[in-house]
Batch of 2 targets.
Target 1
Amino acid sequence: MTVAYPFNQTDGLDLHEAYFEALTTPGMLRIQMPHGEPAWLATRYADARIVLGDRRFSRALAAEHDEPRMRAGKVTGGILSMDPPDHTRLRTLVAKAFTVRRVEELRPRAREITKGLVKDMIDAGPPVDLVDMFALSLPVAVICELLGVPVEDRPRFRVWSDNALSTSRLTTAEFEASREEMRDYMRGLIADHRAHPRDDLMTALIEARDEQDRLSELELVDLCAGILVAGHETTASQIPNFMLTLLDHPEAMDKLKADPSLIAGAVEELLPFVPLGAGAGFPRYATEDVQVGDVLVKAGEPVIVAIGAANRDGLRFSDPNTLHVENPPEQHLGFGHGVHHCLGAALARMELQEALGVLLAELPGIHVAGDIVWKSQMLVRGPMTMPVGW
Amino acid sequence: MTWQLKVDKTVCGATGMCAALAPDLFVLDEAYAEPVKPEIEPDELALDAADQCPTQAILVTENGKEIGPRP
């Protein structure tokens, strides 16, 4: 039987009942997304690890198939649509900027930004929108400084970013027009960086192109645009998501307030506990017949990995549906697995730790102070606005 | 000429990047990575894996001289 997908509702953070059923049923599900061919859905941890980590599964092959997807139009390009060695070539150029060591060097600056944002919130007085005044501002400021994008352009790229991650709000023509606008914006910034090199990632990537010919001009443009979008949207969603989850778990919240050294571990627990995705995507195509658990995936068939479900697999994690901030799991799939493991994982961890740390220390009475409006028709879930008081 | 591969398991982040990129060189022992063989013929993929590792847990040497991750 083929079931309609995605399952999750977007006005909350619950994992849909259908995932829990799938986790207790042998094999993988057959699903049909709004567009494209049917696919297998991997919900178990062990199956997810095979599909994400085995080179017999390809992202690039999706371009040759009627890829399962949310939008009517097919989107091509980008580092997440590549396999090694093309993927390796681009990823190597940016990997150094996002290592654990480099990210730790950014922590003091992130803390300074975070404290400034909380001060602005206090000056404005409650209620304030945690999303606009804090959750978006922190990752946007950090990625803008790292990449070399003027932070005051946020209202402009905010629109393109929302469009890039929308699932059905735009027609294909509107989606492509938005992407071209963002590319033009990036081309302008790249031209400015070419004329005036500086100490940022965009300049380093321009040197890799102009002096070593390691990527094309369009790859350069799309890599910068991709880093800007991916570099803030997910973290900006998870900051309010984590805060809401902690407000729902007052005992955990009290422990973190009493002992801030628990915050890093709490982030590691919240990452797999909060299912960020509205639905899974980015199908992997089998390049040959591959046995995945109980299912023989035939060459040319797509598999989609439901990371939010795999992180709640009771066969891999003990008591995965309870929040244990003092005992985080190891090797969760919150950032994926394999060659496409999130480039910004260390950056996201650091920002989430700093955000929760400063919010709980400076606004210990933080609470929801109005109606939350949830994002809809987006790949990631989270509040669009979240009024808070303290 | 041979290269030597090492993975520092105390810093390995279990991302699975190296084993997915270069399965002939790296394998995941349950979660954490280890070299398939400690000594290999020179192979650019080993340097790519070392470059991409987010925790810089992979060390590639040639006669004791560090050659990966590349600067």
Note: The longest helix of chain A spans residues 100-124.
Target 2
Amino acid sequence: MLGRILEFSQMLRQNGVRVSVSENMDAVRALELLGIADRTLFKSALRASLVKRSIDVEPFNRLFDLYFLGQGQSSRASEQELMARLGLSPEQFEKMLEQIQEFLRRMDGEVSPLTRALLAGELAQVERMMFEAAEGELGEMTQWARGAGFIDQMAARFMLASIREEIEKFKMALARAGAEPRLSEKISEYAEQRFRELMRLAQRLLQRELQKKEAAVPGQRRSDDLSQKSFAYYTEDDIRRMSEVVTRLARRFKNLLSLRRRKARRGRLAVSATFRKNLQYGGVPFRIQLERRRKEKPQVVVLCDISDSVLNASRFMLQFVYSIQDLYTKVRSFVFVSDIGEVTRLFEEHELGQAVEMALRGDVIDVYSHSNFGRAFELFHRNHISAVTGKTTFVIIGDGRNNYNRANEWVIREIRQKAKQLIWLNPESRLTWGYGDSEMPRYAPYCDLVEECRNIEQLYKVIDRIAA
Amino acid sequence: MFQSVDEVIERLAGENYICNREVGTVVYLAAAMRKPILVEGPAGVGKTELGKVLAAALKLDLIRLQCYEGLDEAKALYEWEYAKQLLYTQILKDKIGEIVKGAQSLQAAVDLISQQDDVFFSDRFLLARPLLRAILAPQPTVLLIDEVDKSDTEFEAFLLEVLSDFQVSVPELGTLKARHVPLVVLTSNNSREVSDALKRRCLHLYLDFPDPKRELEIVRLKVPEADANLAAEVVQLLHRLRRLDLKKRPSISEALDWVKALTLLNIKNLDDRLVAETMSTLMKYEADIRKAQEELAEYLRVRKAKEPSGAGTSDKDLLH
């Protein structure tokens, strides 16, 4: 059993689930306590000790089914099917099995253990034997086995031919022994069915082996690990699942800021206040009074590019902006392509999914024009520059692809002068900045922080840097 | 503590906590292997409750540590009561004067005082916080560390040390070792991923919303006065609601509140006009409530289509 557990956890590891040695030891100890008789207990014990992240539960369940066979169930189901097919009641079926076993005993030495187990209906036994045979020989199984030679391969592997022969022999022996025709007919049909089952079993086993091999290919990483996936490759479904992550990110953003405030407040000793407070203790500095800082409410202005080229990224970023706006009172959000429009109200009045869709659909600005950062910035300067004050953190989200229009970087420079800090998040790879119509080199010098922000992990880091 | 998984389930049920076999298994293993349990899952599925109930079922003391951002060792482990120390020295001024009376020099006086160190740094002035209390407890305890994901990573690292050895060193007193390893339950709401190192030391339990059958059991158990028919319908509706894209999915505790509210208003049937109005006990966001009301209407429509004869009776109920 130990070997099986180790192999299983190896398989988990190959599928991106982190399993440590100590966790393996826990699993083994847990099984010592619980035994392995009860399947659900067995599974719960393994799950509790090996799998610690909720996203790993799904792969665990899949691999568990793959690896540990559902032996009991399959044989019980097939038995019922057989009874129905032969038109026998459970008692009659039982009786027939006894007779078959009787014959088998008489044929001692002529049939292999596998055939014997198969005819006696001990499917679990059969499965185990085949599994062992497969362990030894299937190790070398390769890709081509799935092609045309699949059935032949399988037949050869499990020596189906010789089993077939043995069954024929069994039927002949039955006839020789002079069993009554009706019974022998039933029994031979029964044997046929069992053989077919064996074929199915072999096929399943092979497929499972191949799947296991496939599951073990390290290149196939789990796709639901979203944190490293680039926004550009997000599917609709991914984005929907994002909302939870985004709110979490936004909350972290806020917590980091407020934590810093709290820590800063602790810092300085207010001498006069301390003296005054400690007069009641005879001047012994008993209660320390620290200077209290004025609470600074951060103001944030966000400009988000929603042109086609960054559509997925902006969909995500708008969710992020929405969440930030939820947490702070003083946030103003704008979207732009060539025009620029404010979405603060829109975000306040509608719920997340709807608001983002409305912003992207063109309810605020024309989204089908070509992106023109220069024009958008100029318009912002003309209409909204008053939103920027000395307390403002100004965030621009966009790829800086300006379609060779005028860059108008003077707006950025002016904003930088007025604002507390200016941050540019670019959903494009840093390597491509400055090529083609990308104007990043022109804008970047005026920003306090320019970060590539292509996936959640990077956004996470950016947030830490902004708040640090 | 427990002899078998079934016993766990039974004894938790004795404390009005219904759990499935998986929960039972993990609890049994944790008790037998003396490992902490890390419970994760959506809000309101009974994570904290598990810790409390466990203490009650085992008849042990419960020590609870609520985590939050900025929680540090002083709040979690121990603190010296400086104020008390200072107060004592003030009151005992004369006594201290006596001790240092014979001293010829400052050095000698300090030496004399330092001989009395033990008096000032003793248990007397040590303010034990939850973790230290769990370690020093004369009887085994259940230690509930709630919302561990809310704490900072530094604190988590510190927790790691405590959870693996169950001993802490107080520089002035030396190392304090736990007399009994407490049964530890950590809960996490997943507001941040708890570190792998901590997870490795725990048995992991993912508590999800229960299936309808079990949830019905819970409702019947916790609100026994509720109408049986109503409870069944509420549970069915809840499962539909949880599948919606909501800001916050209705939890078990909110569902219980709702059933209580409906029972108080003497409502027997979900097509009552009042039902939609009481939904604010179940949902906490305006948008969610709206969606839930739509879903309720849809649910009632489907149900009515299934049993057209039942339509007349509900109107009669309204009159009473």
Note: Chain B has a mean pLDDT of 85.
